[in-house]
Structures are given as C-alpha cells and as structure tokens.
Protein 1
Amino acid sequence: MADDVRALSAQLAQDPQSLVFLRLGEALRRKGQLEAALRVAMNGLERHPHLADAHDLYARILADKHDYERAFDEWDMAVRIAPHHTGALKGLAFLYFKVGDLAQAEAHLEQARKVEPDDPSIDQAIAMMHKGVGPPSPTPSPATEPSATAASPTAAVSSGALDESRVFAGLEGANEGLLLIDGAGRVLGGALKDKSGTDVTDAVAAYLAGVSQEAARTVKLLGLGAWMGLSAEGQNGNVHLGHPTPDALLLVVRERGMPLGRLAILAQRATLMARHWLEKQ
Amino acid sequence: MSKALDLITRVRGVRGAMLVSAEDGLVVAEQLMEGIKGSAVAALAASLAGRLRRAMEAAGTGSSVFWHLQAEQGAILVVPGDASGGILVVAVAEPDVNIGLVRLELLRAAEAVL
C-alpha cells in the first residue's frame, strides 16, 4: 500500500492535471491518512471542480472524519453533476439514514439500484435498512488514525462530565426545545423532540453546525462583521440560533404561536445562562 | 418584478432587495445600492437557506417562511417563495432596520412575484 501511495504520488507530481489524484486520495483514505487524503482531494477539486468523482472522494474523506454536513454537501454536488453517480447516491442514503430520514435513505438506494441493478451491495443495504440496522457506510473503513476530535476537550464535555440538566434551570420551558451544542455539532446540553415525540436532538445538532458555519461565512464574505443570531419562522414552529461563546451554539425552538420578538428575548436569556454555565466548567 | 423589489427597498435601512434562485444561488432580479455584491449575497443566501431548511425540517418545525440573519454591521432577511424554496426574496439591510416592516414587504413581494 505504501508503494502504491509512493507510485501514485510520483505520477501525480509528474502530471498534476491527471486524474490519478482520485486513486491517490482513496489510497491515503484507506490507510487512514485522512489529512493527507483531504489535501489531495482538495487540490484535485481545485483543478477539476466539475468532476463528480472528485466530490465523491472528498465526501468519503469528510465522512470518515465525521464531518457529515460537509460530506452531505459534497455528495449532493456529485449527484447534481452526475445524477447517476451510485457512490454519491449510496453516500447520501447513508447520511439520510444517520439522521433518521428512512424514506430519503431508501429513495436514494432505490435510485442507485436503478443505475446498477446487479450491484449486490445495494440490495444488501436496502435489506439492512428494513431490518433497522442501517446501510453500511459507503466508505470502507480506513485504518484507525488517532482522531483529533476524540481527544478534544469538547468530546469530554459531551460525555457527561458536565451536569447538563442544570444549563437552563429556571428558564421558561427549560426542559423543552433548548439545545446547546459545540461547533462540531456535539450536544452539550438540552434536547429536542419533534411533534410525534421522537428525539431529534442528534439530527438537529448535526445540521446546526453546518448552519452556523454557513452563517459565519455569509457575514464574513459580505463584510457584515460577526453574526449575532439567526431567527426563523417555520410552518409549525419558530427557532432562534445564537452562540453563547464562539465555540458553542444555542438553539431555541418554540411553537409557531410565540412571536419572533418574544422568542428572541427568551433566546437572549437562555444564551446568558448557557454562557455562564459554560464559563463555570 | 422590479415594482415588488422597489417596495422593499423603500423601507428605511434596506440597502437592497433581490430575487434569488434557491437551487443554484443565481440572481433572478435585483435592486441594490452601490457596493453590495449581488451575486455573492445570492449564492450565500441560497446556501444558508438550504442548510437552514434541512435543520428546521429535522427539528419538526417545517420549512421556513421567513428568516433573519443578524450581524454586527447588517442583516439579511429572507422569505423563501414556497415550501420547496424555488425562489428566495432577499433583503440586505442595516443592523437597526425595522425587521417587522421588511418582513411584511418581503412577504408581499413573494406573493406578488411568485
């Protein structure tokens, strides 16, 4: 494998425009050298921004790094460029399953099956999903690499070291519709349930990290200074997203009946409480 | 189309209004003050709208009918045209703009245009 990487690297150095970066990136990913794989994929994408395979490779690496939001975007882009890209369709199915959207997961797998009806792995994934196991990751496991996130202080925080039940103690509706997460989408406190009572905490947390990154990018590129909050009225409820500290996000969800202005006041209080709680830790 | 945008830009503190294709982030129509990068606003607003829609649907609140990003030196206010978010009506505003008024004009514009 090391020889493969060396040979492929040499080929790429000789001809930086060639598509050999796809094989090199995949080889590095499989070896677990995710940072190196990421660099190769990003360089390749810069040269071939409209190549679906390049977006697929990038997405696989991001998925291995548990950056599911960006992996979703890359697989989504791959499918936009090449609607029959089965790797990307399987990747999207995997991510939809992870957030509990079984209908979308199955739809993407069915789409992949139409393109490659003889691929047994697709039938297998659909069968596993029906059993509630979930489709296997579309990215064959890389060798284990010490993960930066596993050792991060925030990982320890989310493991229960903090008394998360006390974050919003005393606040109106303290036990409902409040979610505190870190910048990587890991839950620090609070929980969310949808109308049917299903716990959607993890799914929402994963999506929120992407919303926050995009909000930050938007205001930065438009020269609007730092972003302070994002309020939204939904068809069935209203939400407010703020950040009590630069590394944390707080989402407040309330019924549609609560006006955005009042929601913003409640969110402000919750933000203060979350900030104090985080500072104490 | 331009009349609808005109009503939004008449609100004090609004620096520009646009119609944006949610799918590809391209400008459909715009009325902007000098210095505002229309194509950048369109691309970023569409991208953020997509991410927000996914988060809100996961949270069970349904897709957004209005959202507002507040920053230190300005704000972006958006009304997605329909549930699938085909066209976004977007306003770029000063930080101290009357949000309620802009929201009303955005909703009116969405009704008139879509």
Note: Residues 144-164 of chain A have pLDDT under 50 and may be disordered.
Protein 2
Amino acid sequence: MAELDESGRKLTIKLVYYGPAMSGKTTNLMRLHDLLSPDSKGEIMTLETKNDRTLFFDLLPLGFHTTSGWLIKFKLYTVPGQVVHDATRKAVLSRADGVVFVADSQRSQGINNAESFQNLEENVRRVGLSFDTLPMVVQFNKRDLPDVLTEEEIRTRWSAAPWSLMMASALTGPGVRETFVKLLEAVYPILDKSFSLSEVHGTDARTFINAVTGETLGNPG
Amino acid sequence: MEIRARGYDSALSLRELLSGVVPDKLSPALTVLLGAPPRVVSANGSWVMGDTPPLAANARRMPLTHDLETVGYLETTAKDEARVRAVTVILESFMRLGARYFMASEMHIEVVKSDYEELQRKHAALAESEARYRELAENLVERVKEQVQTIESAHRQLYQTEKLASVGQLAAGVAHEINNPIGFIRSNLGTAQSYVMKLQSVAESIKSSGNAGLVSAWQTADLDFVLEDFPSLLQESLAGANRVARIVSDLKEFSTVDQIEDEMVNLNDNIRSACNVAAHQINDHADLELTLGELPPLRCKAGHLSQVFLNLLLNAAQAMSKRGKIRILSHVEKDRIVILFSDTGCGIPPEVMPRIFDPFFTTHDVGSGTGLGLTVSRDIIIAHGGNIEVSSEPNVGTTFTIHLPIKRENP
C-alpha cells in the first residue's frame, strides 16, 4: 500500500520486479535508469553478492512533483530470484502497489518460470495482498536470445490470464519502458481512487505516466 | 525525521545516514579540502557534524540529497565552488553507503526473524510429533495387551453365542416334539385312572357271583393285587409325565439364549428353571436348598444369566466327592441384587484359584469341559455391569457371589 506522508507532502509508491533467478529483473531496473528522465532520479542501489547475483534487492528511486507541490516518489525494487531467498522475497513484496513478473523466454526456463510464478502467488497471499486486485504485468524477457518461445505460443498459453503480456529484451532495451508504462497504467486508477490524484493534485493518468517517464507533456511521440 | 519506523525501506535521518563515519576524523579532513571548516545540519537545521555555531554571515549552504530528498545541508564559508561541490559528493557518498548498510542490516534482521519463526514453527510441529510417537511407544505394550484381550473376549463371546444358539435350536426342537406326545400321554393316563376305578367297582360283584371258574381265574391272575397296584403305577407315571412337561418348559426357557434383546424378568424364576434343567445331574450328588428373597424385576439378557446359573450349579455338582449340599441365596443389598451359590464340595486349591476365570483353563478331563464356563460366566456378569467373586476352602466348599446392579427401567 502506498505510503502517504501528509506533513512531508509526499506519496511513496512501491513497485516490485519479481521472477525466477537470472530472468533479468536487475537489468530491467538498470535499463529504466538509463531510459527514464523524470524530475528526480536516484542512483540504483544494488545489494549483490560477488558474482552479480542479487542478495537482498536492488532499488531504483524515481520521483516527480505535482502541480500541487507534492512529491510522488516511486521505489522500484527487484527481488532475489534464487529459491533460497524466499524470506527476502516475501519481505520485499510486502506492501507492494504493483508487480512486474519478469519471465525468461528461453524454452528451457519453463519450469523455473512456473515455480517462480507459483511462489509469487503464495507470497502475495502470505503478505496479505490479493492476486485479484494487485496490479500486475507479465513480461517475457530475453526476446533477443535464440531458442525462445514464440510470442504466439506465449499469448496462447497465457490467454486465460487477466494480466497484460509484454515482450522485452532488457539487455538491449526494447519493451522495458513499455512494461513499466503498462504497470503504471494499471496502478494509477487505484492510487487515484485512494489519494484523489486527479482532483486534488491535478494529475491525470497521462500526466502521471509522462511525469514518471520524463515524456514532455502533450508530445508522447 | 529523527524518529523513524523500523524496516528496510523506512526513511532515514541524516544522523543515521552518517552514523558510519567518525566525525572527529572526517571534519578536519573536509576542512583541509575546503580550506574552511564545514558544518553539517539536518533538514530542520539541527547540528549533526563539524563546526559549532554561530556561523559567519557569509556562509554558503549546499543541500545534501538522499533518496530524491534533501535531508540536510553543508554549511561553510569556503569560496571555491568546485571544492564545496566535491565535499558535497563525498558526504552524499558516505550517506549512500550508510543507507546501503542500514537497508542490508534491516533486511537481514527481517529475514533472520522470519526464518527463525519458520524454524520455531517446524520445531514445535516436530516436538509434537515426537511426543506423539513417544507416547505411542510407551503405551504400545499396554495397547497390544488391550487389543489381545478385546479379541479374546470377542472370540469367547462368539464361541459361546454359537454354542448357545445351537443348543437353543436343539432344545426348542426337542421341546416342540415332546410337548405333543407328553400331552396325550398325560391325558390318557388320567383316563386310564378312571378306567381302573371302574374295574375296581366291578371286582366285588365278580368275586361274590359264586361262579367258581371266574373266582378261580381271578385268584390265579392275582387281580386283587393288580387292581390295588394299578392306580399307584398310573399315579407315578402321571407324576413322571408332569416332570417331563416341566423340564420341556424349562428347556424352552433356555432355548431363548440366542435372543439379543433385554427383557424384564424376576431372576428367581431363572434360578429355579436352571435348577430344574440341572436336576438330573445334581440329584445324584447333592441336595438343593433354595432361599430366594424378594427381588425387583431386572432388565437383562435373561437367557445369558440362566446360562451362568446353570454353569455354577453344574460346577457345584461336579465338586462333590461325596453327597453334599448346594445352597442358593438371593436377596437385595442397597441397589444391587446379590446371588450366592455355595457348595460343600472339594473346594478350589489355592494354586488353581488365580486361574479359574482364565479362558480354556479346566481341571476336568479332556473332552468333558471346554474350560470356558467360568470365563464366559464372568463375561456375562460384567456385561450386565456386575461382578462375580469366589471364596473357597479345600474340602469345605466354595461360594460364588454375584452382584448385579438394579438398573432403573426407563419410562
């Protein structure tokens, strides 16, 4: 649940990149850091082990000021994908406002994707969130690699799921920003309902998304 | 910002962010770099590190940013823009390291706590399971013994029930077959008695008729004796027939042993019919003395209790080395019916006493008894909520005492 600081005029929104080990969650964050240009953008804080595997989490802070003078702050987290770090995943997931599930498109990774997704489902329940209401986007990453599932195969398999499916290649960039925007689109209505973003802060969905991504107003192209 | 909620993603104060540096060493170092003393204050202006107030009027103020927000300021009179900027970067780097350490440690605590709780939960489950198994192991012998007893008891019941059922069927069949002929035998004997009386009435007129041939034939045949003896023969036969009829009726009583339902009976009736059924085996060995007190009606499996009485009677009869006496007493004590079977037989030797209720234990020769009589008797009494006790003295006699609770009949 987003954190409202009335006295500090600040709203903090937590978004989590979840998924199996080595699926490219940290790479997503690094690419976003390069691609986005909001009002304020922090450095990525990584807590990794020696061999570049995420130990606890990565954190990318982003933010912008509304016309009403409030700071809307985004904290983008990744979870450690390795199975043993389940307690950490649970801790990072708690109070999340939205989730990107980063799946590995390689054919060999089907089981890892499925197990991780099941783990997400369990942890969502354990931290008191609901799969029915939690905004979520599913990203199939590593489209640039050979021997990946075709988009058609993926869309057929996930046709019954309610979440947006995004194809991405985090290493080179395509799809990373689009995935993030898709998640913002899903998160905005809930935030607007809770905090009257549109009425009180003069921030409609378009303004909201453009402000986070750093698009110039009225010029999305 | 001095007070913060715990948790890896909680907001941090400048003081916390700089908790990793030693101000006494850093401040002089920064003074060297700036060429003037630095002072670090938090966002609300409170002093954190460096030179103490008051500060010169021409001091500059540079915001220190962490996590997109200004959490404090660097104040200095240094003029060189580049140096001031460099010191700001150095301070922010320290703050960043502090935050990184803080978040890692908070996350570590959270994970350790969560893992520990999980461990505790598993430990508790394991301890519970272990306790269950230990309890099971401790009680295993006892439980097996219980099971064996249950099976043995069920086995005996089955054996007895089948035996009683077949005896009952036989008894019912025999009783039915005998009832008819004994009916007309008794009726005919009565008629025969009246015929003899008629013959007697004509005897005098024949003897005084003066017909020498007739009188001589009468005397040769000794019909005087015949006419005198005939009524008593018939009377004895009638008595015998009546006894047969009574035994048949008692047999029918026993033929109901396979009835499972409870019935209301006066146990004295059951004692009497047991005595009748056993009379043949008892009469040669002992005299029977019944002292039956007033008993309330009892809801019970009457056939089974009759079987108990019969068992005890036959045991008593078999215990007689010479002719003796069997006494049966019944009376009420408080809320229980008490029935005693005493005999003046050979008694039970002390070494045998503990085993008399054991299944298949018998002192009789092979084939003459199953060794189940007392076992089943006790089972039956216990099934009625009662108990059976025995006291015995060798060569003096044995007494079995049965206590049965009087169950109130449900309206």
Note: Chain B touches chain A through 17 residues (CB under 8 Å).
